[in-house]
């Protein structure tokens, strides 16, 4: 069985689980000839749902045999032994799971396709329960005390309750894995499974027969005498007519779906998603890059061959040299005024300006540009009138920090470090009655942690000020002096008559 067939069956099986058809899902899983460790784990979970403990044990054995560092598989096999009242073997598996955590507070399996976090304190709680079942109450108490050192705020109650029960030598409930939560194949790989017809249907290019629509194979036919005078446009220009972009900031990938790029690389954007991620191609590799790390690259029409003339050489795609960024930049088309032309065409001292708005973005202007040129560049990016834009050197727009036509721009550009500077942007917005818009406050229902620089991290119960609604699923907000985007399902809006935030 090919890898594509295996991936397709895996996706069909987890879809059946989502549709509550567990029997069909298990039948599809068992038809896979060479399952990997994650597929065996899914099979074991389905057997547990059917209360087939012997089959579940064998499936988890195979999963661990394929990957001896999969802590969650040890945890599930330990729960299988516990249900079979084989407490010594259950204890050994929980100990293996805790060892695989390597001293970490938790393991997040989201990157591997499983939306589950295995907490060290929960593993220690189950270890203590196995010891209690064996009558070793001292060791059970010792494991629970150790669990307190690994606890998180959300897991505090279950550890405290278990510790109280252990002191009274009473059994407590184990922490169980939600068995319907399975490893799923990479969604981007699954999306590529659909067959594509790259050849298309054959058609007649030129024929002496009027309205000839024949497709297929036929003997040689006489062709028209006067063929096309212009050579066919090379494929490189067809690619450049897409979405060429210049990379502004270095991006280090965290998953296999993401693509590593550095400032100056030229990438082609294939698709921009609503979640601010763009699917790009760079060096014949395809991956995801944050769209606000990119800037649209305008290709001059002069680089294409004129109609009726010979074919010219395509423009060079060599990335610009760091940090001057000399090549890969759009040529200036403004010919009015020598001073302004020098400012726009000079790329030796190009400065990257990071603008903190409702979302973060970047523009590039020559170092030493006037405030009018800087605001005009930002105006085009936001598609707003210049009068509505207020730029400042700090997050709070004060009289000293706001950039105006009378501001000494030399002092502003002296703040740049390594041809980079950060500015803050606000928009003058008013309601129909002339009063400023009221703030919307949110409260976090769950903690949200992300290593992406554009995301906002917060803890459960934190107060968040809503800045904007990115789309139906993502919001932009501010919390504890930081701003960024976050999932809308993690928060709820505080009623107007609710208590005010301090």
- Strands of the widest sheet, in order across it, are 6-5-4-3-7
Largest sheet: 5 strands, antiparallel
How many runs of DSSP E, i.e. beta strands?
Answer: 17
Shape call = globular
Helix content: 25-40%
> Per CATH, which architecture of the largest domain?
Alpha Horseshoe
Just give the CATH class of the largest domain: Mainly Alpha
Question: In terms of per-residue confidence, which ranges show pLDDT below 50 for 5 or more consecutive residues?
Answer: 227-242, 300-347, 430-437, 498-502
Rg over alpha carbons:
31 Å
Question: Taking all residues together, what is the mean pLDDT?
Answer: 77
Question: How many separate domains make up the residues?
Answer: 4
Give the percentage of residues in beta strands.
15-25%
Number of helices: 14
Briefly note the structural class of the backbone: alpha+beta
Within the CATH hierarchy, at the fold level, what is the topology of the largest domain? Answer: Serine Threonine Protein Phosphatase 5, Tetratricopeptide repeat
Corresponding CATH superfamily of the largest domain:
Tetratricopeptide repeat domain
Describe the 3D structure.
Helices cover 31% and strands 17% of the residues. The protein is an alpha+beta fold. The chain folds into four domains: 3-167, Serine Threonine Protein Phosphatase 5, Tetratricopeptide repeat, CATH 1.25.40; 233-299 and 317-322, SH3 type barrels, CATH 2.30.30.40; 340-427, Ubiquitin-like (UB roll); 440-493, SH3 type barrels. The strands form four sheets. The chain has a five-stranded antiparallel β-sheet with strand order 6-5-4-3-7, with no helix packed on it. A hairpin with a 4-residue loop joins strand 4 (266-272) and strand 5. The protein is globular.
């Amino acid at each position: 069985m090919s890898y594509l067939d295996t991936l397709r069956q895996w996706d069909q099986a987890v879809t059946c689980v989502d549709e509550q058809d567990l029997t069909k899902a298990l039948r599809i899983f068992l038809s896979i000839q060479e399952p990997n460790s994650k597929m065996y784990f899914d099979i074991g979970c389905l057997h547990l749902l059917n209360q087939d403990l012997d089959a579940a044990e064998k499936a988890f054995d195979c999963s661990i045999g394929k990957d001896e560092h999969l802590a969650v598989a040890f945890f599930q096999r330990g729960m299988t032994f516990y249900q079979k009242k084989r407490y010594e073997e259950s204890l050994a598996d929980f100990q293996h799971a805790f060892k695989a955590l390597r001293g970490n507070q938790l393991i997040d399996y989201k990157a591997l396709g499983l939306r589950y976090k295995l907490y060290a304190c929960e593993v220690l709680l189950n270890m203590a329960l196995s010891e209690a079942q064996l009558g070793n109450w001292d060791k059970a108490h010792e494991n629970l005390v150790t669990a307190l050192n690994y606890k998180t705020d959300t897991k505090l109650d279950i550890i405290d309750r278990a510790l109280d029960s252990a002191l009274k030598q009473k059994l407590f409930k184990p922490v169980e894995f939600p068995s319907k939560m399975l490893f799923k194949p990479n969604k981007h790989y699954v999306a590529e499974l659909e067959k594509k017809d790259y050849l298309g249907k054959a058609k007649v290019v030129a024929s002496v027969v009027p309205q000839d629509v024949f497709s297929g194979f036929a003997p040689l036919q006489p062709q028209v005498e006067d063929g096309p005078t212009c050579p066919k446009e090379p494929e490189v220009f067809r690619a450049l007519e897409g979405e060429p972009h210049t990379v502004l900031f270095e991006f280090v990938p965290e998953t296999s779906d993401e693509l590593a790029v550095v400032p100056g690389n030229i990438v082609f954007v294939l698709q921009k998603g609503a979640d601010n991620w763009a699917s790009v191609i760079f060096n014949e590799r395809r991956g995801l890059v944050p769209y606000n790390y990119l800037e649209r690259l305008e290709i001059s029409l002069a680089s294409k061959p004129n109609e009726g003339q010979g074919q010219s050489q395509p423009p060079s795609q060599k990335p610009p040299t760091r940090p001057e960024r000399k090549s890969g930049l759009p040529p200036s088309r403004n010919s009015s005024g020598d001073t302004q032309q020098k400012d726009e065409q000079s790329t030796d001292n190009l400065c990257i300006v990071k603008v903190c708005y409702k979302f973060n973005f970047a523009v590039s202007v020559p170092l030493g540009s006037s405030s009018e040129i800087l605001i005009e560049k930002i105006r085009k990016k936001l598609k707003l009138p210049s009068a509505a834009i207020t730029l400042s050197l700090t997050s709070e727009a004060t009289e000293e920090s706001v950039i105006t036509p009378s501001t000494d721009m030399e002092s502003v550009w002296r703040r740049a470090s390594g041809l980079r500077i950060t500015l803050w942007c606000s928009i003058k917005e008013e309601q129909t009655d002339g009063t400023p818009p009221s703030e919307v406050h949110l409260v976090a229902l769950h903690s949200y942690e992300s290593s992406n620089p554009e995301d906002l991290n917060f803890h459960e119960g934190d107060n968040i000020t809503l800045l904007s609604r990115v789309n139906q699923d993502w919001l932009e907000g501010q919390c504890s002096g930081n701003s960024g985007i976050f999932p809308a399902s993690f928060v709820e809006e505080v009623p107007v008559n609710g208590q005010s935030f301090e």
